[in-house]
Amino acid sequence: MMSMFVMEGLQKCLEAIKENAFKASEYPVIITFEDHLNPNLQEKVAKMVTETFGDILYTSETENLEQFLSPESLKKKVLISTKPPKEYLEGNTQGEEISENEGGTVANECQSSSQWNPPEEGEHVPDEDEGKVVPEYRQLIAINARKLEGGLENWLSDDPKKVSRISLSEQKLESAAKTYGTKTVMFTQRNLLRVYPKRTRLDSSNYNPFVGWMHGAQMVAFNMQGHGKRLWIMQGMFRANGGCGYVKKPDFLLHRGPNDEVFDPNLPWDVKTIMTVKVYLGEGWHQDFHHTAFDRYSPPDFYTRIGVAGVPADKDVKQTATIEDEWLPVWDEEFKFQLRAPELAVLRIKILDYNTTGRHYFGGQVCLPVSELRTGIRAVPLHDKKGNKYKHARLLLSIKFEAP
């Protein structure tokens, strides 16, 4: 009975994905399964997936790919990513956590969990059909997820004859970044690395995505239930490339030197460019907010926090003066930011209403990918905490880039 309910839920999930998959972008949708299916359920899932997606489902002609296809060549395709069936059963003997998805998080991926009374961690429970693998289910898997055996160094080994995907928790990624920084970069040049939040983030908070991005991780999964700085940064990064959900990896993470050396995230970085941002003025709050939204008896006291989120050496935050009692504040202040990895930098802007109690009221925010900013003057629309654009609230900014 439990399996029937799970299968019905999966069917509804797949139908919802098909209905909405390509409304925002034609680029491929990757569905990550975390499954523990016996052969009978494998057969049912294979039939369900095949019948639901039909021609838009991508299946590989070979089990071991030597190179992943580009997103451009996979437009309007749905791809399934999971471990080959037998590897889930074998993985129970390893002592590593089976779950690739500690908190049930989703970001740029849709995840499904179909569990049939899974064993305790480290315990292997034989099944009478264990040796059987349903070929129709295996053929669904376009991106093979690798079973994690041994330690970090072994997990990040690059097999020249085939490519795969591994999933690491944020803690495991931090360990890899400290000890095997260049090995992680080398691994992600050919393979896919997915990072997910630790299970203790019960408040649906998020981790720093730049640890993954600066090491080449392609799938940095986020909790989408809450809102805050790191989710705004993620939204800002993916405003690039037309908001299609795919952003090209910087060339310095793809390059290999004459002796096969790769970018080392742990070495000092040279300044590539200096970005100057001048904040002229803001307008539109009196149209988007009630006249008592900030102060019951007087206009708001707005100030702007402006900064850069990015690799550690690029992180910086500056602040304008507070303009008192004014719905149309004029700041006319200029700030300079030295950027070492502008390809990974996000310009962060946040407007606050100053309050003497220390509880400053939110007046809007926006995060913009530095890689797509150009020199000039522009009106920048502001967004609410959920990332929705206000109708009228905006800032007038000028942006300039120059050599260091």
UniProtKB/TrEMBL annotation:
Chief localisation class: membrane
Domain PI-PLC Y-box: 167-253
Molecular function in Gene Ontology: phosphatidylinositol-4,5-bisphosphate phospholipase C activity
Topology term for the membrane: Peripheral membrane protein
Keywords, ordered alphabetically: Cell membrane, Hydrolase, Lipid degradation, Lipid metabolism, Membrane, Transducer
Record EC number: 3.1.4.11
The protein's required cofactors: Ca(2+)
Tree of life domain: Eukaryota
Compositional bias annotation for Basic and acidic residues: 121-131
Lipid metabolism found in the keyword field: yes
Name of the protein: Phosphoinositide phospholipase C
Region (Disordered): 86-131
One Pfam family named in its UniProt record: C2
PANTHER family: PHOSPHOINOSITIDE PHOSPHOLIPASE C 1 (PTHR10336:SF105), PHOSPHOINOSITIDE-SPECIFIC PHOSPHOLIPASE C FAMILY PROTEIN (PTHR10336)
A GO CC term attached to the entry: plasma membrane
PROSITE patterns associated with the record: C2, PIPLC_X_DOMAIN, PIPLC_Y_DOMAIN
Record carries keyword Zinc: no
C2 domain: residues covered: 255-384
Top EC class for this record: hydrolase
Compartments, as annotated in UniProt: Cell membrane
Biased composition range(s): Polar residues: 108-117
